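Progress note, sequence design subtask.
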């Protein structure tokens, strides 16, 4: 997929992004507002006209035009249905997945991720329960930090054998990772203004308030997270490496989240090739296009510290759920490439590690918040 094909189709990906509005085809007779089990929500046009339900006495197809609401219970099997005539029934939704057409393309949602489904006919208003798409943290002094919601799901972590620029020792084997809970992530890298407001100092070499803070080691980044936690009452931390790659990909499988070619990288990242081959300092955050989940500068500007010690990827064939990396190590992971890096080091799968005491003008960070905030 290239930058000219930013509409995401998630045939093999369970949840593609949060959708804040229904698709453009408002003349379609049905729209669904879906609250997911992680608290996020999606609005879209269904591919089905009825819902198959097994009750204790019969199997039936409930027409969407007769249905008002479905609530899926915690066991992910039984459901309570409310019809437009006021009738109610309980049963099992006999559906492997719910397919929706959204403004981001097609999304296939496994029934195990459903919580509430509201049906709207024609021009009826539709509810927007669950998490909002964005959230601000108030850092004081009029300084805020924007975050976006990253929904639960699964993805293939690492780079395939044929990917140009691949480091097989660090980036392989490709393995499936499940992210079991949605989480919040900084829309931008932490800026110098935000860092100085919280920590009272600014260590950056290239000083500019809206630039990402740099020349911070891993311990500095952790101390910032702890200070913001104390200031806001919300648990703020560095992203796990798997969370970082999952959020960066946002459902894509290409070298960059905008495509496979370097021309696709140029619209998303400040890197060595942005102005010929001459490196240039970092830029203010948010000037390049975001990925499908609204994250900016994931592939350039400054590298980003992650929580984990660096280690080899698992070699088994089974999926790994919420990996946290090795228990000990000598190098912490950084991701994302920087303003001085060539295109190969700005790939989504590129990973490296360095002593957590190290700091230079190439490394910054962004933050994460767990779902229950």
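Output:
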């Amino acid at each position: 997929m290239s930058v000219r094909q930013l509409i995401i189709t998630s045939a093999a990906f369970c949840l593609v992004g949060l959708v804040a509005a229904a698709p453009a085809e408002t003349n379609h007779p049905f729209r669904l507002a879906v609250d997911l089990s992680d608290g996020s929500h999606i609005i879209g046009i269904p591919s089905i006209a009825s819902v198959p339900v097994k009750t204790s006495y019969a199997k039936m197809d409930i027409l969407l035009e007769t249905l008002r609401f479905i609530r899926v219970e915690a066991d992910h099997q039984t459901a309570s249905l409310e019809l437009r005539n006021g009738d109610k029934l309980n049963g099992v939704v006999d559906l492997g997945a719910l397919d929706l057409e959204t403004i981001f393309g097609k999304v296939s949602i496994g029934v195990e991720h459903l919580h509430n489904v509201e049906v709207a006919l024609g021009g009826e208003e539709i509810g927007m329960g669950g998490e909002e798409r964005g959230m601000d943290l108030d850092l004081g002094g009029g300084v805020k930090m924007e975050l976006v919601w990253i929904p639960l799901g699964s993805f293939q972590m690492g780079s395939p054998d044929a990917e140009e620029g691949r480091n097989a020792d660090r980036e392989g084997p490709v393995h499936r990772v499940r992210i079991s809970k949605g989480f919040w992530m900084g829309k931008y890298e932490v800026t110098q203004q935000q860092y100085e407001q919280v920590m009272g100092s600014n260590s950056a070499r290239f000083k500019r308030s809206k630039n990402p803070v740099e020349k911070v080691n891993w311990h500095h980044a952790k101390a910032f997270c702890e200070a913001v936690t104390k200031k806001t009452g919300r648990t703020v931390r560095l992203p796990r490496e798997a969370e970082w790659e999952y959020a960066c990909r946002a459902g894509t499988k290409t070298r960059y989240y905008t495509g496979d070619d370097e021309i696709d990288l140029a619209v998303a990242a400040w890197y060595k090739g942005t102005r010929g081959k001459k490196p240039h300092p970092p830029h203010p955050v948010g000037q390049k296009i975001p990925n499908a989940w609204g994250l900016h500068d994931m592939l350039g500007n400054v590298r980003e510290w992650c929580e984990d010690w660096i280690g080899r990827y698992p070699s088994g064939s089974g999926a790994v759920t919420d990996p946290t990396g090795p228990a000990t190590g000598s190098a912490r992971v950084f991701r994302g490439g920087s303003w001085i890096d060539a295109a190969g080091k700005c790939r989504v799968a590129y990973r490296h590690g360095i002593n957590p005491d190290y700091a230079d003008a190439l490394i910054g960070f962004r933050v994460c918040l767990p779902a229950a905030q």
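The longest strand covers residues 114-121. Work on this subtask will continue into the next period as scheduled.
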